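haha ok so turns out i had the wrong file open the whole time. this is the CORRECT one, sorry everyone. sequence first:
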Amino acid sequence: MSQLPPNPTNLRGAVDLSGLVNRPQPGEGDAGGAAQGEPVELPSLFFQGTDANFNDFIDLSMRIPVVVALTASWADPDRALATVLDRVTNDLAGRVVLVQVDVDSNPQLVQAFQAQSAPAVAGIVSGRPVQLFTGALPEDQVRDVFAQLLELAAQNGVTGTAQVDAAAGETPGAETPGAEAGEPAPEPPLPPLHAEAYDAIDRGDYPAAITAYRTAIAQDPRDQMAIAGLAQVSLLSRLAGRTLDEIRNAAAATPGDSDAQLAVADLDLSGGHVDDAFDRLLTLFPTLDAEGKEAVRARILEYFEIVGVEDPRVGKARARLASLLY
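then structure:
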């Protein structure tokens, strides 16, 4: 990450940013710049963002980096990622605040952040969006991303710290930075096997989560939540314990090695580079023997579930795969 782009174009048009257009940057005499590094009193580190209240968080980002998680509350991997984001935010002790956005209820924000699939995580620094990652990542990688965001914020003079009102506590779900923290709306209970998988993901036991999802699918082959959850947790399991450099260097050194190319495609997908992941595997496909082709085909079908079958990029990749198969 480096200096922010000159204009917050990715958000404009979906939410009203007119108040930020001519706002001075930190250090140029504005109120936010004058308060850099000072505590900001807030009811919580955790908020629910909506199409209606999002300008409050854009304003807050002039003083404290804001992390925005666009998730679907019904999706098990999204719930697991939310738990990781909560934990990392807590550990940073006010250096960032976390805003959860329900993608099903806030279409303007989904459009604003150009979120093609959920979960998607972005940052806002000085009113400007920063794309972070798409999909669920292992916790150590999430912590690395937060560290990079803090470095970027410091480069741009955004160094404030949230000071939580002890009476309000740090309950996730506060509505806006100026509102009283309240109890989040209760979520419907998960089916038992989904709950088992979710708990396993939360503690980093990906094999146990995979087993739970496979059992759920065996009991109900039409369980789309379990199918999508299995695809996402399988991706997490394959990436766990491996570094970005290790994966990319292996793929560059052995371009004909299908396992190495599958691994870097996983990395591309986890970072939101969906087209790159599809293109890598579809370009590799014709060069492989029958066993290799089947492995690549199976992996691409997993990606369809992760990205979402309605996504136009899936439609393009599906058509290209069909032309290669037949």
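Residues 290-307 form the longest helix (18 residues).
again sry for the mixup
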